[in-house]
Specification:
It comes from uncultured Thermomicrobiales bacterium. By secondary structure, the protein is α+β, with helices and mostly antiparallel strands. The protein has 5 helices and 15 strands. The N terminus is likely disordered.
């Protein structure tokens, strides 16, 4: 991942003192503009494919302020509250695909999923009185609230656990810039960079008798599909997984094809 993409987006929110509504609009537009400038050319969709050919994505949520405080009764867990959001989540791909766009945040949260046994990783880049602060976390239990009226802003809360050691690639550039101190209790402009889709456990079940699971395909990598706005199996999407279910299990085979359906 080109480090200038992260740096450019973070700088978009530094020192901005526009009106609340203007700042919200400019935050989302500025981040998209930075990404678009870093990735010229018309975006072409890459269909989900084999792991070696997959396109890697990052997701960005921007806000005007927030807090990060310990969660009562849960040692090591914090509540991350993000306020003044534009209601849109930005997605962009690594080279060579150069895909960038936005989707409603509530739709993104439903699509990504936040399983407690394999939560998404994220890096919070926040502006504090002392400058820029970065913390890498695991995300759980998102709660999204739209605000209406003059502000037109949104609030998003997550339960988070701070990752002292981050060894993956997607957020590596930001992880290297962590101060290594306690996370900021309060901050102003912020961007939350969320890592790519996680693997999911894929089940195979009979049509019309869903709940009777005939077997499973195990954990499979998933890739972001910007045409579907969803995380889908990298090798052929859900259609490919369904086809594999029907080829693999005898209970799925009969006089009518595709008796079974794949699902997570």
């Amino acid at each position: 991942m080109d480090p200038t993409r992260f740096d450019g987006i973070a700088r978009t929110f530094a020192g901005r003192r526009a009106s609340r509504r203007a700042a919200i609009a400019a935050g989302a537009a500025g981040a998209v503009a930075v990404l678009g400038a870093a990735a010229p050319g018309k975006a072409q969709e890459a269909a989900p494919g084999a792991e070696g050919n997959r396109t890697f994505f990052l997701f960005v949520q921007t806000f005007l302020g927030g807090t990060l405080v310990p969660k009562e009764g849960e040692d090591g867990t914090y509540v991350l509250t993000l306020t003044g959001g534009p209601g849109q989540t930005i997605y962009f791909s690594d080279r060579p695909e150069r895909i960038v766009g936005t989707l409603p945040t509530y739709q993104f949260l439903d699509a990504l999923g936040f399983p407690p046994d394999n939560p998404p990783n994220a890096a919070l880049v926040a502006r504090t009185d002392d400058g820029e602060d970065i913390v890498v976390v695991e995300l759980f239990n998102p709660v999204y609230t739209d605000s209406f009226g003059e502000s037109g802003a949104a609030t998003l809360t997550y339960d988070v656990r701070v990752l002292a050691d981050y060894a993956e690639e997607g957020l590596a550039h930001l992880a290297q810039r962590r101060a290594g101190e306690a996370p900021p209790a309060a901050f102003s402009e912020a961007a939350l960079f969320i890592d790519d889709c996680n693997p999911v456990w894929i089940r195979c079940g009979r049509e019309g008798i869903w709940g009777w699971e005939v077997g499973d395909l195990g954990y499979r990598s998933t890739c972001w599909s910007w045409s579907d706005f969803n995380c889908v199996p990298c090798a052929g999407g859900w259609e490919g997984a369904t086809r594999e279910c029907n080829e693999l299990f005898s209970e799925c085979q009969g006089t009518r094809p595709n008796l079974c359906t794949a699902a997570k």
